[in-house]
Design a protein that fits this description.
This protein has helices at 2-20, 98-123, and strands at 48-53, 62-71, 74-84. By secondary structure, it is of the alpha+beta class.
């Protein structure tokens, strides 16, 4: 539960990062276009994949991280990972608790939905 909370907080901290990495566009018309209006594309975020990490403390016995992919100002994918205290990535395909794999997949889907909604609210 602590890892999940730390991961959620890490994801929330990524929102200002996305805003800081936003592109600035110039909506002025060019005088060489024979007075045709420019249709400049306005983007708020740079396309790419961003990574956020949870804290790694002795009590947490590892850490978690999330890869967030943005394309066309939308979060298109979130991948969640856990690393144990030995530095090994948790392999959900062989992990003995089937519920953990299902929870990992479901959390990633929910992050896409919730963070996209949060971004829309903060930018309005």
């Amino acid at each position: 539960m602590k890892k999940f909370l730390a991961l959620v907080l890490s994801m929330l901290l990524l929102i200002p990062l996305f805003a800081a990495c936003s592109k600035q566009t110039d909506n002025n018309t060019n005088s060489n276009t024979n007075n045709n209006a420019n249709t400049a594309t306005s983007t708020k975020y740079n396309d790419g994949t961003y990574i956020g990490y949870s804290d790694a403390t002795p009590e947490s016995r590892g850490f978690a991280y999330a890869e967030v992919t943005i394309k066309d100002d939308k979060i298109t994918e979130v991948k969640l990972y856990e690393v144990n205290e030995y530095g090994k990535l948790k392999d959900y395909s062989t992990y003995p608790l089937k519920e953990a794999k299902t929870a990992n997949e479901e959390m990633a889907k929910r992050f896409v939905e919730k963070i996209q909604l949060m971004l829309m609210i903060t930018l309005v």
